[in-house]
From TrEMBL:
It is found in: Cell membrane. InterPro entries: MetI-like, MetI-like_sf, Phosphate_PstC, Phosphate_Transport_Permease. It holds the Pfam family BPD_transp_1. The lineage of its organism: Bacteria, Bacillati, Actinomycetota, Actinomycetes, Micrococcales. Part of the binding-protein-dependent transport system for phosphate; probably responsible for the translocation of the substrate across the membrane. This is Phosphate transport system permease protein. Belongs to the binding-protein-dependent transport system permease family. CysTW subfamily. Residues 95-323 form the ABC transmembrane type-1 domain. The chain crosses the membrane at residues 22-48, 87-120, 132-165, 185-206, 260-279, 302-323. Keywords: Cell membrane, Membrane, Phosphate transport, Transmembrane, Transmembrane helix, Transport.
Length: 337
């Protein structure tokens, strides 16, 4: 056999690019690029429209700077509203309210979601697990306005006596210290409960699918070594699904941070910073504040609202960046191999 023949046989043939592969590759590349382009367009729009909020004396708007000052004074009693730094004091309570309500929702939703996902995948009979999975998916499809109406009409009145009891018996905790307990029950705690119910199906559904991806051999090996079902879950399922659970939790947190109508309908906000959960004065959220003030906002006010949207955009990107960093640290786990 000649050297030329051997070289020809050792060289793998080039793959033939079929029209379907080329079309699918082009569509996939275009779709991925389109997502990045939309994200960049939103980012630059927020910067372009929101920069005027930092300059009360901007000349390219129709409304005078006094309207801008009055808009800020309505939400925060500022001594010198003409200073550009006052926007920070305006958006700070809103950012705090967004993060605070979302964290409260996560604290309530995550343990329940993980417990329900474990029950569906490892404890419930097959028919019951199928029915529960269908109910969880149905909860995710309910519009946020329905949750808001339910929270405002039903939940707020139902939990208000419980808030009175907390104020009388647990007022030594800063979360329940309140000279005036809310008479309507429309507090940040009620809004957090509604948010927890809204993000529960998202976290549960994703976590359930992650648990089902655990290698069967790992589970059977743990049981064969004498482990109980809970020990098998603790040693095989939870370590394998840890990064996926973090991703599902962060997706739920992103949903809670951006929720608008449910929070706006349930929460009776006063634009302050407080960790009290049962008082009549509560911090608002950025998304709810934009929804409530959008209809009556002048041009300068609209720039302020868009600037607060830019802050929410930055918070969401930060949350997703932290989630990606946590998930990246768990890539060394090779449970699927």
């Amino acid at each position: 056999m000649s050297a030329e023949t051997a070289s020809t046989q050792s060289t793998p043939p080039k793959a033939v690019k079929r029209p379907g592969d080329v079309i699918f590759s082009s569509i996939s590349t275009f779709s991925g690029s389109l997502i990045l382009a939309i994200l960049a367009a939103v980012f630059f729009f927020l910067i372009w429209q929101g920069l005027d909020a930092f300059n009360p004396n901007a000349s390219n708007v129709d409304a005078p700077s006094t309207e801008h000052s009055e808009f800020l004074i309505k939400a925060q009693n500022l001594a010198n509203p003409d200073e550009p730094g006052n926007f920070f004091w305006y958006v700070l309570p809103l950012a705090f309210g967004s993060v605070w309500a979302s964290l409260l929702a996560l604290i309530m939703a995550v343990p329940v979601a993980i417990g329900v996902a474990l029950f569906i995948t490892h404890y419930a009979p097959r028919k019951l697990a199928s029915a529960l999975g269908y109910v969880i998916d149905l909860l995710a499809a309910i519009p946020s306005v329905v949750y808001g109406l339910w929270g405002m009409i039903v939940l707020a009145g139902f939990v208000q006596p419980f808030y009175v009891w907390l104020g009388q018996n647990l007022n030594w905790l800063p979360f329940f210290q309140s000279e005036q307990v809310s008479g309507t029950g429309r507090t940040i705690f009620t809004a957090a409960i509604v948010l927890a119910i809204m993000i529960l199906p998202i976290i549960t559904a994703l976590t359930r699918e992650i648990f089902l991806q655990t290698p069967r051999l790992h589970e059977e090996a743990s049981l064969a070594l004498g482990a109980t079902r809970w020990e098998m879950i603790k040693m095989a399922v939870l370590p394998f699904a840890r990064s996926g659970m973090v991703s599902s939790i962060m997706l739920g947190l992103g949903r809670a941070l951006g929720e608008t109508m449910a929070v706006a309908m349930v929460l009776s906000a006063s634009g302050i910073i407080t960790v009290n959960l049962i008082g009549s004065q509560n911090p608002s959220t950025i998304a709810a504040n934009i929804a409530l003030r959008n209809g009556e906002a002048s041009q300068m006010d609209m720039h302020v609202l868009i600037a607060t949207g830019l802050v929410l955009f930055a918070i969401t990107l930060l949350v997703n960046g932290v989630a990606r960093w946590i998930v990246g640290r768990r890539k060394q786990f090779s449970g699927a191999n």
